Amino acid sequence: MSLRKRGSVWWIDFTSPTGERVRRSAETGNKAEAQELHDKLKAEVWRVDKLGERPRRTWNDAVVRWLTEQAHKASIEADKIHLRWLDRHLRGLELTAITRDRIDRIGAAKLAEGVAPATVNRVMEVLRAVLRRCVDEWEWLDKCPKVRMLKEPTRRIRYLSHEEAGRLLAELPGHLADMAAFSLATGLRRSNVTGLRWDQVDLAQCRAWIHPDQAKARRAIPVPLNDDAMSVVRRQIGKHRELVFSFRGKPIRQVSTKAWYSALERADIKSFRWHDLRHTWASWHVQGGTPLFALQELGGWESAEMVRKYAHLSADHLAPYAQRLAPLIGHGTNASQAQKDEGATFR
Predict the structure, then answer these.
(1) What is the tens place of the pLDDT at every residue in 291-330?
(2) Residues spanned by the domain of 327
């Protein structure tokens, strides 16, 4: 039978002219409606096979294929969150029905929730990526509607001074203080610190490493351990068989806890996130003279552009060029003063 009822819902089940089995829920308990959808799908399959028409694809089809192909992404969980939100606006829609006007309305709906423009843009970026894949690789669409991005305010890099870092570490409970100190010494992301295993650490060579499947850019990251990092690691010996960092013998899943925020308050440090420890590490490196290309490799960034936001923190390499103007400015000032003195003499 082409229609079968499972529970209260009808299911469609038939074979296309090419022998492909088409099986899906009609999402209705009304047999007449299910039959109508069945006939429509069967006609579409016939037109695709016999007349060469392009299959009609829905947003849901695109999402399923996107998630399958992008399962390797480090940020796939964030994509899923955005896609779940988009589902309420695009569920069941044919891709050809996703127009520029509809996309603008979706962006406005997200902004109306009171979120920042950056949050809206992250959702729109996922939507745009899926639609572009429909055009460029899957050939499900002839063209992709333009997805407008909102202007994001440029934010200053938030980092701590050495004195502030000392205050924070003093206020944190032991296990968080050790992880924060290790982050300040290595620049590793939160997940790489909480998930660091003893088989990723070589105490004799003073180094650790992050495997490609653990890195955001999906590339291995070498982690040289300086004296501060080694001191922290040695304090963890014997606390857990597999993980470097633990709390009372158990893995640590969350770091932005009540204890973290309480310590920030006692240390009088405002507007600071755990990830800003990584910004602090990078800022200290640049201020200490570490070249950007070396910082990129140490931090495991995918491109040089991602580390250029720290470039303004060190101007030492520009000093020789700035100094070239000093004689000119001095000469101009002296000449101007001489003219004034000369004019005063003849009055």
Answers:
(1) 989 999 999 888 888 888 887 777 666 677 666 665 655 5
(2) 315-347
Residue 225 in domain: yes
Q: Decide if 158 contacts 276 (C-beta within 8 A).
A: yes
CATH code for the domain of 275: 1.10.443.10
35 lies in some domain: yes
Domain identity same for 201 and 301: yes
Going 134 to 139 to 140 to 143, the CA torsion angle's sign is: positive
Count CA atoms closer than 13 A to 218's CA, side-chain side. 7
pTM higher than 0.85 for the full model?
no
Contacts of 340 (CB under 8 A, 6+ apart): none
Overall domain count for the chain? 4
Q: What is the DSSP letter of 46?
A: H
Residue type, 139: E
In a domain, 132, yes or no: yes
Is the domain of 272 the same as that of 302?
Answer: yes
φ, ψ at 26 (rounded to 5°)? -85, -10
Indicate which residues carry an active-site annotation.
189, 216, 275, 278, 301, 310
- Look at residue 198 and tell me if it is in a domain: yes
pLDDT tens for each residue of 203-216? 999 999 999 888 88
Give the residue among 96, 158, 101, 90 at the shortest CA–CA distance from 123. Answer: 90
The letter for the amino acid at 285 is H
